[in-house]
């Protein structure tokens, strides 16, 4: 039997401390709800811990990362407080094979921009409008169990242009009541690691309690888990010998 | 516990009947060796049957396909004998989610050209030269357990230009002793189905007995198995109602 | 100075003969309006002719295709009347480098399905609702001169799932008033040829008179024009000699 | 008539000052040879200047970059001496639409790693072996005029794994006499800018005098030049108004 996937739910955890609306929606913190969602979806196939911005080393010590198969990332108001050396540490682990799931306002996280190379900027509006999320890749493991579309009744709007590299695979596209569209579920590979961006999840709406969102979270964890033991090195390698004979010149 | 993946190994099975060299290398037929390789790799996670060109309906009845999660395809001298209606039947099953693994000379199979839309032509030379297969995507599930490269001691050469659409993911690239290169492991998605092309496997060399090739076969079966139960329809759908209100004009 | 791009505007031209609404909107036929749009956009850089379904060989003789750099395709009610041998002829010319621009209901044309390998099906609704087309790739040559979005005041709705292979490049995504989204501007390569699908263009609305749509048409013609004289062959090529020496075995 | 493409050839220019072999091969400096190659290929369609690492601001002032349509980049021994703020400046210009062509050992340049998000590491060996470069995308503008393959008689070997994101388009794959393969011509888009990596070009061999290499350089400059005037912003944009009416809640 396969070992359980080791997930670390990383959370900024500052809105909850400052904003009563967020406290009411997520009294235990958003990270707890995300942790419970993943446990609910994957049961014994997963073990989940959490790590917070204000933990030592943001909770992302060498040891924690070494024991993490998939990292989820939610940040918003304090992206700048994440230390660059921790970003580098996370990046290296992704390249070595750790999956990374970046959520909602994490589009502006240092680690996301670091891996993608673009600004990751977008348009946004916060009036609690309807979002309808369409699946454009129903055979994708992340879409498993998701219908042709599902609705988030009240959402912050994110609209194109979402400044990202062309996704390797596009899974979801959002429709917003106010008139915009957005590539809401995007997959990329970097090194040996898999990267998924998933748009839903604003702090003032109960989006992480919603069944479809939880389903996608669980699917994404499974998809992003390392799937190959093949060799990979972070550094260039000098080869002395040839594999086949070379003519003298 | 997950149900086993139901694999059908499809084989042309004509070279073995006509050519003594092939008989010596594959006395039980190439299909038997491929079947055993997949069983060896995946054990209880798989059930494998075979189907041959000269079986009724080429062994690919509606029922067989309905019970197939992943189909492997080896053909060479008799591509033209595969009935177009069976090709259409296989195509529809791929779109609905069945995985398809096309092997070696199957690059010229009707089903492969049908799904890709190009000629799938290439350069070739048959002098038993060395092939060295390099992994360019070590994090890919199909590369699991494969080293930086492996060798096939004697191979038919396939060289670029391989006339295929840009692969969604490129996993292997071959080096040939005589001077050519080839994109030897290519992934695409069509509808809900996953498609993998794997180059090694000429009928006059014992390539399907080789450990690395068998490993890739097993990995590819796991990768190509259906991974999503989300809805998909082969036909356009007329929608009467709107999901959101539309202004009168 | 570069030679002008030779464009053939192919049109089914049946709605105009049967439907008074279409006659009023396109009294000279949709093909004439598309031809004029391309001429308006590209001036001396282009020469445009038209070809109709009911012309001999659908107007797509060997000679016409040999003299065509970019073919645009509009069909709807009579896809089945296009002869398979002409589809094959067009396909081969695309592979050899001719650009192909498939418009609106052409998503169900035989040539489009032939090149893509999927059903190309979608959802649709015809109530004249608002469409807003967003650019998701502002650096793409086809998006040149197009703002962040533009509106088509009355459109037939096409909604996801649009059953196509993952586009090599996605340029436009549509928002529909009634609640759907659609990948409206998609690029692929097949052989040496470039393929662009552009959604707008229903026969009962004056969409091909609209400035942004005409702009995109002109851009797409420039983008799809052949851009490389490098060798390409439709058939597999047997190579006798090696380029580098091969060890005896 | 179109304005000429404004090219800046950026060069580290340190090997020439320290190494007699390099001085003999490139007595005027590699940058001069690259400049002349681009001028030779594109004539009046181009104006080329050079910029060197040891120029003030590495020759890449705000003004120079504002007047650059395509930047070519060659560096090797002194990647670490490029100031991070200049890297950021170049990155922003690429996102805004400037083309970037990274050559040979530039795979390890800060700007390349910054835009791609991976280590960009590889295997290497320097024994002057034969390289044969195969075209896998003959319809691509960068392949225009290039035959099925061409040879570099003596080259430094670069071998897979080349740790890069999946290229949007793969144009060339190299075969090396000693047994390796390499993805030698790779295209990506970042923001509005186009990025091309081209492998050939070691400082101790006269590779930039070779006709095919010069042809590719010229083609790449044309391909990478900005091709769209559509709007793009480096920063997220707050939208107050909706484009379509939103229901009260």
Brief characterization of the structure:
4 copies of one chain form a homotetramer. Helix content of chain A is 24%, strand content 30%.
Question: What's the arrangement of secondary structure elements?
Answer:
Four copies of one chain form a homotetramer.
Chain A: E1 5-11, H1 15-18, H2 20-25, H3 30-42, E2 46-52, H4 62-66, E3 70-74, H5 84-95, E4 99-103, H6 110-116, E5 123-135, E6 149-159, E7 169-176, E8 181-190, E9 193-198, H7 211-224, E10 237-238
Parallel strand pairs in A: 1-2, 1-3, 3-4, 4-9
Antiparallel strand pairs in A: 5-6, 5-7, 7-8, 8-9
Helix pairs in contact in A: 3-7, 5-6
Pfam families (chains A, B, C, D): ThuA
Domain ThuA-like (chains A, B, C, D): 6-224
Protein name (chains A, B, C, D): Trehalose utilization
Structure notes:
The structure is a homotetramer. Chain A has about 250 residues and is α/β, with parallel strands linked by helices. The first copy, chain A, has a domain at about 5-115 and about 185-225: Rossmann fold (3-Layer(aba) Sandwich). Helix content of chain A is about 25%, strand content about 30%. Chain A has helices spanning about 15-20, 20-25, 30-40, 60-65, 85-95, 110-115, 210-225, and strands at about 5-10, 45-50, 70-75, 100-105, 125-135, 150-160, 170-175, 180-190, 195-200, 235-240. In chain A, strands 2-1-3-4-9-8-7-5-6 form a nine-stranded mixed beta sheet. In chain A, a hairpin with a 2-residue loop joins strand 8 (about 180-190) and strand 9. In chain A, helix 3 crosses helix 7 (about 210-225). The longest helix of chain A has 14 residues, at about 210-225. The termini of chain A are far apart. The interface of A and B includes residues 130, 137, 145, 229 and 243 of A. Chains A, B, C, D: Pfam families: ThuA. Chains A, B, C, D: InterPro entries: Class_I_gatase-like (IPR029062), ThuA-like (IPR029010), Trehalose_catabolism_ThuA_prok (IPR009381). Chains A, B, C, D: This is Trehalose utilization.
